[in-house]
Amino acid sequence: MVFALAGLAIGVTAFCMDQLEDFLVDHNKQLLLYIIKDYSDPGDSESLRFWLPALSYASICAMLGLLAGLMTTYYGPGAAGSGVAELIGYMNGVNYPDFLGVATQLTKILGVTLAVASRLCIGKEGPLAHIGAIWGAAACYFPGLGLEFLQNDEFKRQIIAAGGSAGVSAAFGAPIGGTLFAYEMSKPTVFWTFDMIWRTFICCSVAVLVLALLQTWASGDAADGFRGSTIKFGNQLTQVKYTNTYQNFLGAVVLGVIGGMLGALFINVNFRMNALRKRLLTTKFVKPLETALWSFATGLVFIAAPYLMYRAERENVCQSYAATDGKVKKADTYAGWCGQGQYDPNASIFWTSEGSIIKNIMNTEVGVTSVNMFIFFCVWYLFTITTYGTNVPAGLFLPGMIIGCALGRTVFAGMNAADLIVHTGKNDEEIQAQFEGLARSYVVLACGAFMAGYTRMTYSLAVILMETS
């Protein structure tokens, strides 16, 4: 019952965080689109059409980042970072100061949501593990249930491990992978037993089920809402079936090598960046300012990149909704500087919420070119590698998946251009179906390859990706 209670709390919390993030991101985007539309007359200067919406958008991002930084610095300093490292230490007998507590929990929930909405290239999936761990510890102290006999170090370590697993499960909609995540991350602990595994699985399953039910209620669409995760792969992987899966082997090797190299570079550069932060940011008030600066820079680049792509290929960028035969939804895309009844594919991957970016990358009908996808990959990789470590609650799971998705699409396009992809269909329709299926499988492979490159996770990551996609 205690494990199920923790799972219930985690599912509700993940739902509230997801809704708040979407609310903040959508309202910022609506303001951006309103300003773009208001200054879309031919008589308006090109600089005004860019700088006014870009500075307005980046300023709001900076404000949200500043709020997250202030809350972390002055109210809940124990919430900084993802909390996964501290969770691993706690499961191995190391009790970190401020790892558990009300201030840490509130800062983790609100801080990471504000930070993600500020467009920092971070995720909330790692912090959800920390949030789940705190809910697990709190479940032992739920009043009126006579749980005093459970308030000991041995049981709290078990319920905290289960709560951390449920947080990961709610993030990815992966109860099995979430259970394996805590098991893999907690080694070489000895408290894991068969009973512990199925109790953790119950906690994870309840969290995913509660999140799925709440998302279904919020969306009013069971087909779209009943997914039980804070990220959205969409249904693209289930729409196309293909049989030439042997072509994935070469892609798996290539993406594995590239993912490992990029992961090693990521760790090296980020380690040096955080050492530089430790040496330069020696006073408290400077830390929120750094966060605000990164939020402003990220927001500005996220507007500048689609705009420059639009200016360079104005006639070819804008896509018509009518030409997609309903395969591209207006809710998932943004018009940018395009006309009525059109959308900008590049703005649609830069401006949407983090949970929906993968959905747009997976959907080949959105129409992002290989060159622009590579630019998107470079922007996200560079900002993630430098931003992570600023003094806010932040995770690396979802940024890794987003970067991996862009990497997969880019590598697949390169291999196809080099005639390394064999088309075996009997007609154009079969060839196109196989092409789309292979492209999406490369996206999933690249997600796993890049994430494994910097997390050093193996089997739990594979199961999480299988369940999520």
Could you tell me how far the N terminus lies from the C terminus, measured between alpha carbons in angstroms?
30 Å
Average pLDDT works out at 83
Count the DSSP helices: 19
Number of strands: 2
CATH top level label: Mainly Alpha
CATH fold annotation: Clc chloride channel
CATH architecture: Orthogonal Bundle
| SS content category | mainly alpha
H/E element order: HHHHHHHHHHHHHEEHHHHHH
Described by strand count, sense and barrel closure, the largest sheet is: 2 strands, antiparallel
The low-confidence parts are none
**Helix-residue proportion:** 55-70%
* CATH homologous superfamily designation: Clc chloride channel
Task: Kindly list the characteristics that best describe this protein.
469 residues; mainly alpha; Clc chloride channel; 2 strands; 19 helices; 1% strand; globular; two-stranded antiparallel sheet
Could you please describe the fold and organization of this structure?
This protein has 469 residues and is mainly alpha-helical. The protein has a single domain, classed as Clc chloride channel, CATH 1.10.3080.10. It is 70% helix and 1% strand. The chain is built from 19 helices and 2 strands. The chain has helices spanning 2-38, 46-74, 84-91, 102-117, 125-139, 153-172, 175-186, 194-219, 222-225, 236-239, 247-280, 286-312, 314-317, 345-350, 354-362, 370-387, 397-417, 428-455, 459-468, and strands at residues 319-320, 342-343. Strands 1-2 form a two-stranded antiparallel ribbon. The model has no long low-confidence stretch (mean pLDDT 83).
